[in-house]
Amino acid sequence: MQNYIQTQISDIGGRQENQDFASFRGTKFGFLSVVCDGMGGAKGGSYASQLASQIVIDDITNSASDDPRNALQNAVQKANFEVFRVSINDSKYKGMGTTITVLLLTQEKAYICHVGDSRVYQFRKGQKIYRTYDHSVVFRMLKEGILKTEEQARNHSRSNELSRVLGIQPFVDIEIAEVTYQKDDIFLLCTDGICGELTDEQIENIVRQNTIVDNLANTLIKTVNQTCFAKGGGHDNLTVSLVQAKTNSNIITSQAKNSNSLIYISLMIVFFIIFVGALLSNEYLRVRPLQMQNETFKKTLDSLGVKPTEKETKPPITPLDSLQKIIKIKSDSLQQVTTDLKDVIKLVKEKKWAEYNKKLQEIQPTKPKASASEATEGQKN
């Protein structure tokens, strides 16, 4: 069963040609979605976006690597070089390039890659929890404090200038992020035709009002077209790719299970310390007067020159302040820890002190043996 729902729409907007391109495919790593926004004279822009998208899709699908991040890095770098190679060898494609955003949704996590100003958003219950940041001149100015707000960046005269793009140089600096996800999280990949016209708050409001991804995609495109055509048109191409997770990522699930286990173990230890502490306190109160009487009796015998017959002495009881040092949760399973605690409590209740001390020694964490190299190093010192 698929662990995602996806949809893609690309619209020409107010232009004569659509230079955006979107594609997707299921791979051995998980679901793969790619969105590109091409640029360049004649047919260069549309060819660059299509070429880059297809190379990334094919290369990840056929990757020999078992590492999703490595496969993604290699695929995007290969796409960059191929766009660059074509642009310098074919005059009609000279100067072409493209942005790229990639989402690789694996069972463990989501890998997000981008170059340029096309974006990836992650929404949870209608709230934006993640967003890529544009590789552009104005966003660099924001980072340096020259501009103060994204609204200033949006309206700046250099808002269309990119600091990174595929195909301009033989190698490109690729940004890759890794995020966990929860059931019903929505990932939005879009070109700047969408995020250049709508603020993050406007996009967030539309996401909140459209929980079905098909409706959400159509609403985003429709909203931008209506707004821009009302102003006279001529606006950029519009492309959105939406992916909704239908399960939690494995890392989230694993963290939740570990958290529940630790809570249970912690409660068991607290109960153990309180219970055993009470029993040991009672034992101390009962034994102490007898010890005082025995000491007085011994002094009396000594004064008379009589030596008492030696008897087997009771083994010392491990004091309460050492219990927390002995009971340490390391690599033991939850079941084993629980069993050990129950055994110790039983021995205390039955006042089997010799067995109690022996059991505590058994479950006390031991120091790992020094490796051969460590032993040798110790001898040298």
From TrEMBL:
One of its GO terms (molecular function) is protein serine/threonine phosphatase activity. Keywords: Membrane, Transmembrane, Transmembrane helix. The chain crosses the membrane at residues 262-280. It comes from Mongoliibacter ruber. InterPro entries: PPM-type-like_dom_sf, PPM-type_phosphatase-like_dom, PPTC7. Residues 6-245 form the PPM-type phosphatase domain. It comes from the Bacteria. This is Serine/threonine protein phosphatase PrpC. The keyword Transmembrane applies. Pfam families: PP2C_2.
